[in-house]
């Protein structure tokens, strides 16, 4: 979503993005003239008149589980967004029984918070695991 | 889900669904201020909106609440052709 019109979205997709991704952008390119939607999401910069690089993860109940907002010159890390999405999906599937520690990726161990784990995280989770 | 619309000469627009919260000052000599409040907070429901969109060769209207039951990544960016 940006403040550009759907006509400009079409031009960008057809003339540039479709050369990066075969078939072009497969999801809706949303138009937010005037930044009305961006304002309620807290990402519209009214001085610059544009939206900042905000990214929201919204779960199947419509609840915002996480967001990240960057100023224009720094692009996002899509792999990190997908990692977070997979983590939220795992937590939801476990109905909150499992939590994903720092550095978690799919396939890595999760934690099961509870009385037995209090003060014992150091035994099962090592700091190197945040970086591997 | 998203419904196609015919593009006319007017630039299609959308916006939040439901009334924005208006802040009205009670004192009579003060200017009445209307302010759209940011309603976003993690762990709370995302505000609903309708927005026109370009999707695979068509112009469609997209309503966020039509995606209930699915995971959604909603991304904002400064503008088309902005490099990064």
List the helices and strands and how they pair.
The complex is a heterodimer of chains A (132) and B (84).
Chain A: H1 6-20, E1 29-30, H2 36-40, E2 44-45, E3 50-51, E4 53-58, E5 64-70, H3 78-93, H4 121-124
Antiparallel strand pairs in A: 2-3, 4-5
Chain B: E1 3-4, E2 15-16, E3 49-55, E4 58-63, E5 72-75
Antiparallel strand pairs in B: 1-4, 2-3, 3-4
Commentary on this structure:
The complex is a heterodimer of chains A (about 130) and B (about 80). Chain A has about 130 residues and is an alpha+beta fold. Chain A contains 4 helices and 5 strands; from the N terminus they run H-E-H-E-E-E-E-H-H. In chain A, the strands form 2 sheets. Chain A has a two-stranded antiparallel sheet. In chain A, strands 4-5 form a two-stranded antiparallel ribbon. In chain A, strand 4 (about 55-60) and strand 5 form a beta hairpin. Chain B has about 80 residues and is mostly beta strands. Chain B has a domain at about 1-5 and about 15-40 and about 45-65. Helix content of chain B is about 0%, strand content about 25%. Chain B has no helices and 5 strands. Chain B has strands at about 5, 15, 50-55, 60-65, 70-75. A 4-stranded antiparallel sheet of chain B has the order 1-4-3-2, with no helix packed on it. The mean pLDDT of chain B is about 85. Chains A and B meet through helix 1, strand 1, helix 2, strand 3 and strand 4 of A and strand 2, strand 3, strand 4 and strand 5 of B.
Helical residue percent of chain A?
A: 25-40%
Total strand count of chain B, please?
Answer: 5
Order of strands across the biggest sheet of chain B?
1-4-3-2
* Mean pLDDT over the full residue set of chain B: 84
CATH topology of the largest domain in chain A: Glutaredoxin
Q: What is the gyration radius of chain A calculated from CA atoms?
A: 19 Å
The helix/strand class of chain B is: mainly beta
Globally, the shape of chain B reads: globular
């Amino acid at each position: 979503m940006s403040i550009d019109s759907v006509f400009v979205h079409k031009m960008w997709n057809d003339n540039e993005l479709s050369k990066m991704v075969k078939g072009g952008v497969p999801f809706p390119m949303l138009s937010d003239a005037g930044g009305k939607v961006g304002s309620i999401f807290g990402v519209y910069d009214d001085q610059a008149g544009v939206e900042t690089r905000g990214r929201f993860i919204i779960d199947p109940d419509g609840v915002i589980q996480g967001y990240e907002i960057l100023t224009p010159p720094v692009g996002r890390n899509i792999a990190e967004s997908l990692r977070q999405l997979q983590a939220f999906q795992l937590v939801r599937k476990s109905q909150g029984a499992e939590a994903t520690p720092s550095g978690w990726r799919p396939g890595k161990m999760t934690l099961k918070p509870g009385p037995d784990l209090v003060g014992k995280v150091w035994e099962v989770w090592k700091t190197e695991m945040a970086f591997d | 889900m998203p419904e196609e619309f015919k593009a006319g000469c007017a630039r299609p627009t959308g916006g939040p669904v439901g009334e924005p919260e208006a802040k009205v000052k009670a004192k009579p000599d003060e200017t009445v201020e209307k302010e759209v409040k940011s309603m976003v907070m993690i762990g709370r429901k995302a505000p609903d909106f309708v927005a026109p969109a370009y999707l695979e060769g068509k112009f469609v209207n997209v309503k966020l609440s039509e995606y209930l039951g699915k995971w959604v990544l909603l991304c904002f960016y400064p503008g088309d052709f902005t490099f990064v």
